Amino acid sequence: MENQNIKNTVLGVLAHVDAGKTTLSEGLLYTSGVLRKQGRVDHRDTLLDTHELEKERGITIFSSQASFTVEDRRFTLLDTPGHVDFSAEMERTLSVLDAGILVISGTDGVQAHTRTLWRLLSLYGIPVFIFVTKMDYARFSKEELLQGLFDELGDGLVDFTQDTEARDDAIAMCSEDALHEYLESGSIGNGRIRTLIASRNLFPVYFGSGLKLEGLKEFLSGLHDYVELPRYGSRFSARVFKITHDESGNKIAHLKMLGGTLKVRDSIRETGKEEKINQIRVYTGERFTPADSAEAGDIIAVTGLSEVKSGDELGEGGMTASPVLEPVMHYAVVLPEGKDPMTVLPLFRRLEEEDPMLKVTWNSYLQEIQVGLMGEVQSEILKSLVFERFGLEIELTRGHVLYRETIKNTVEGVGHYEPLRHYAEVHLILEPLERGAGLVFTANVSEDLLDRNWQRLVLQHLVEKQHIGVLTGSPITDMKITLSAGRAHLKHTEGGDFRQATYRAVRQGLMSAESVLLEPFYRFRISAPQSDISRVMNDLKAMGGSFLPPIYDGTEAVLSGRAPVSEMNDYQKTLTSFTGGRGRLIQEPDGYDICHNADEVVRELRYMPEADADNSPDSIFCAHGAGFLVKWDAAPRYMHLESTLNARPVHREIVRAPKHSIVSDSELEEIMLREFGPIRRKQYGRTIAPNRAEETDYVSKPRDFALIVDGYNVIFAWDELKTLASGDIAAARERLIHILSNYSAYKKCETVLVFDGYRVPGNKGEQFDYQSIHVVYTKERESGDLYIERLIGKIAKTTDVRVVTSDGMIQLSALRKGVTRISAQEFERIVTDAETEISELIENTRRDGRERIGDIIKDRKDLKDLPEEKGKE
Known about the structure:
The protein is α+β, with helices and mostly antiparallel strands. The strands form ten sheets. The chain has a seven-stranded mixed β-sheet with strand order 3-4-2-5-6-8-7, sandwiched between helices. A seven-stranded mixed β-sheet has the order 37-40-41-39-38-42-43. The chain has a six-stranded antiparallel β-sheet with strand order 16-15-18-11-10-19. Helix 12 (452-464) packs across helix 13, helix 22 crosses helix 25 and helix 23 (784-795) runs parallel beside helix 24 (808-817). The longest helix is centred in the last third of the chain and has 25 residues, at 824-848.
């Protein structure tokens, strides 16, 4: 691919809060000729801090840009927030920088947030120039400040304000090549210096004052001479680093051109649909200039891309690194009385587009909007911003730390989604990873078993959702989730089926695993008088913190270690109080680790995972044409695929008919074929020699009561019969006929056993008597429900009728007719009781010497009957 040199270079200005970053930026723009008058933060007239909230508070909240030229080079300057609460806004700009300017206050030196910035610049591989400002107020000399930088930031820092010989002598110590060049020629050329800076082996340090413009000309000259020109490809590519909205609500995408050119009306196809660039804008502060085109290296804003989001790569862009800084505090949004949260949620989604780290979530369990924030200052800004943008006066609950969850053991999560005419099954292996690893998704399934497109879809569903744990409902992390098996149906599977199965598989795995609650930690350094250091150590132990042995320096002692954010958040106030203002706390985020008071947190948050309707661990299976729910702990026994975590085959149970299903034999046959393969015996027809065959409707006989039994509903509700049906459905029917024959004779009832043959092609139906019962196979297009309903209507007025079924439609029909309804499960218990009584009678017959069981039955006057539970409205 052809490359070309671009003379535009993107610089980012970074610093801890109140270090003088915006003042330095104003000074650079003034010195380079962009501004006629230098703005001041305290005068609220800076070019880059234009938002009213920024002017009121005197801090940068939103990143902004301006361009300036130095001789033949053009630089785009991105001013970023310095307050730690707005670090996410700052971090988003790092992905588009060619070099960074790290500003350090000469009065404060390196602060905790300075070290965080230094670490981020290293992670993103960005060359760094350091400018120590406020030297007009500095309490220390350049040498002392430089030594402090060495102590805090490490090697490679060289004072570029000293004479050339001393500077080159220091640079020579940064690499062997530089040393060799210095020894050979007695100096180091600009090309070597640019290479060392670009490879982050050399970090130039400048001193001066942004307010008084001291040292700025030299600094601009250094940027011109020592920032290496970036190289880009010739084909279009760009990276979106920021999203804003104009007053009309139109989305504006801020991006850096990484290659090629972009023109107004060009088409972009990156988000599933083709969109056209309506306008290209080049911003300076809050003002912009329209442009017809943009070249590689430019920072621009475009309209017309409605679907893009921060971090997207357009064209041939590469992958963007995942954010390092994430919110550690969690707040619930309290809306004005009478305001529907579902109408407000889209407004917060718009804010989340602009700041993805806002982490807006709708907690259906608590029915509230929740946001993730970095701290109290950001929460105050958010309230002001919501009022300014949407006219809503919101409140935020007192923040608590944002917990996360992981697992301790490896488990298999299974999810099955099979309502009628849908099908998907997913098996996932969930494995714990080391702290800070995040989530890793992968697939290990042969394409012969699950098509590649379905595998990609499962992985997409794993990525698209923020999956939450089962202890507190907090996001999961530090876990590898592998797609290990899956199944689709050629005809019935749709994309949404795999979404449901995937979500349920993750959740079922988490319910099965041993979960671990994680909380955010700070790495700290505390300096305090030696007389108070014991108190500090005791406090840290009580917080669940850990630390190294104290280092004593004169009258002070220094402790370094890490402790939970939840305990350290307000400790500076406590430290200041008992040390008389002499104690100093420096802290920075240090990832997540095991929660020091997990049991207490779980009790306090009172999260009930099985009650969370949006994150169900249960699976849905199909039987008799209807879906039914199987609880998460029973789901593995119902799965159609074997476990992939161990080699033991999973016992596949026959699914029970749901209480509200409508049974048809064609659907039953389809399920049986899917579950157990081809039927080995004839599906319909007579299997027992009947006493007589009749093709006429059943006529009730004068017995104690009439019992109507829904045959297939009972077969799939009784464990004995459903096991038999797994190999031979006809054998299960035969067994039920024998059971009912014995029961009917014992209870002196007229029994009608109905089997549904509605969708059996060419089925003419059949009716016959077997011993004491009447067996009915309905004909084609005659459902068992209809037959039973018609029979109830014919005999219920003159006969005590009882219907045995768990089918909701048949039960409803019985209710309307006022007849007794008995579930299939309850009838199984009744039949078992009757069989026990018969066994006792047989034993009594042997003991009393009587020859026939009928003699005893005739003598019994206390035979138990079926429960008289008439239908009730």
